[in-house]
Amino acid sequence: QVQLVESGGGLVQAGGSLTLSCAASGRSFNNYVMGWFRQPPGKEREFVATITRSGDNTRYAEFVNGRFTISRDNGKNTVYLQMNSLKPEDTAVYYCAASGSSWTFYSNTRAAFDYWGQGTQVTISS
Known about the structure:
Blueprint: E1 4-7, E2 10-13, E3 18-24, E4 33-39, E5 46-51, E6 58-60, E7 68-73, E8 78-83, E9 92-99, E10 115-116, E11 120-125
Parallel strand pairs: 2-11
Antiparallel strand pairs: 1-3, 3-8, 4-5, 4-9, 5-6, 7-8, 9-10, 9-11
């Protein structure tokens, strides 16, 4: 089992940047595919990005369009989401998630992930 705690959210102006962090408990962090999802106000939670266990491969939602970068440091049990060129429509609660299945890397669905953090609020002002 793994516990996830996100941090780094906040209020920034459009065009700005934020880096979210997700710290995982446990000693087997490198056994988990990690992902980021977000839930905009009044909308469903949606896939943002995912990264393989080793960190060698990443996938992104189409709306990211080169603005976000997911990365991980297995030595620190942490996954990151660097977000640049932020837009008001990026306003959402951002969640990190973990899955013990390597196939989850290819999934965009919430159900594929086993563990979730509590979320961190990101607000982008225009």
